[in-house]
Write a structure and sequence with these properties.
The chain is built from 17 helices and no strands. By secondary structure, it is mainly alpha-helical. Helix 10 crosses helix 11 (173-181) and helix 15 runs antiparallel to helix 16 (294-305).
């Protein structure tokens, strides 16, 4: 890994690629991220989003926030994979929970727009605040607008003005223009969408039409079901969901619906409607169990036993409050 980094810094991409690949194939998560980025940028190899997706997926499963964020962008933009903003939201959330400011900003964007998740201005304001506190100018500007308009919580003009000044100090063009004009915020600001997004940030389209009604939960079991019966039920792949239904399922899961959380775990376990992910399968099953789902209480410990040591560490970070 060190030889690869030294070669990369020197611009010797062929050597870097060889060293990164050797380390990545041995399970080094940082090397997997580096290799994925090189395939994304076409450094030393032809640009290949599909191969980038492969290596970033492996690193993301080890809990590396930069990999999770890059993977989220691929799904959001539809590069190397079919566009799926619900899956993107999942990976943005994973990285955001680990403190990555860009991921926190992008997750706030999705909650503000209702893209991939149910629209929720409270959560949008929460994640903008998290990113703003880390000095991200776009998030500071977005938070200032939400505070000025009372979006996602009480209006606070003084706090809004303070964040607007902080955003301007970072070079945020819209904040600078607003301060120079000394005009009040617009009635309906596009608070979550910077005019010139950073290269690492997602470009968010207008809100989609409302999703169809959520599908009935495909996982149900009587309260007295035995561990063996629960395991047998879960080992059968679920029926595929449309992108809209999966987005709605994720919205219900994120809102705390235990049945939806267990169904989401089921889909991630088998790679149906979303990429296969043992870590996310266990995490959603554990969340469902904590919310009182009897089947999840039986299955979550079994799913945890399937994880590697690194995957368990990633799961712990995702489950942290």
């Amino acid at each position: 890994m060190e030889e690869g980094l030294a070669a990369y810094r020197a611009g010797n991409f062929q050597v870097a690629l060889r060293e990164f690949r050797a380390a990545a194939e041995q399970g080094d998560g940082t090397a997997q991220v580096s290799l994925g980025v090189m395939y994304l940028r076409g450094e030393g190899v032809p640009e290949d989003p599909a191969l980038a997706l492969h290596w970033l997926q492996l690193a993301a499963e080890q809990g590396l926030a930069p990999a999770q964020h890059s993977l989220a962008l691929l799904y959001f933009e539809g590069r190397g994979v079919a566009r799926n903003s619900a899956v993107a939201a999942n990976y943005f959330e994973s990285a955001a929970l680990q403190g990555l400011a860009d991921a926190q900003f992008n997750l706030a964007v999705l909650y503000s727009r209702g893209d991939g998740v149910r629209q929720d201005e409270v959560l949008a304001r929460f994640w903008h605040a998290k990113a703003a506190q880390q000095g991200l100018g776009d998030a500071q500007f977005a938070l200032s607008q939400m505070l000025a308009q009372g979006q996602g919580g009480p209006a606070d003009p003084l706090e809004a003005a303070a964040w607007l000044r902080k955003a301007a100090a970072t070079g945020n063009r819209r904040a600078i223009e607003m301060l120079s004009e000394q005009s009040p915020p617009p009635a309906h600001p596009a608070a979550a969408v910077p005019s010139q997004p950073l290269p690492t940030q997602a470009r968010v389209p207008p809100p989609a039409t409302p999703p169809p009604p959520p599908p009935a939960s495909a996982v149900s079991a009587p309260k007295d079901v035995g561990p063996g019966q629960a395991q047998a039920l879960f080992e059968r792949p679920p029926s595929p969901l449309s992108a809209a239904h999966f987005r709605d399922l994720q919205g219900n899961a994120a809102a705390g619906d235990a049945d939806a959380q267990l169904q989401l775990a089921w889909h991630y376990l088998h790679g149906v409607s979303a990429p296969r992910s043992p870590v996310r399968s266990y995490v959603w099953a554990e969340r469902s169990a904590r919310n009182g789902n009897a089947t999840a209480r039986l299955l979550a410990p079994r799913l945890q036993k399937r994880l590697t040591h690194r995957q368990r560490g990633a799961a712990r970070s995702m489950l942290a409050p």
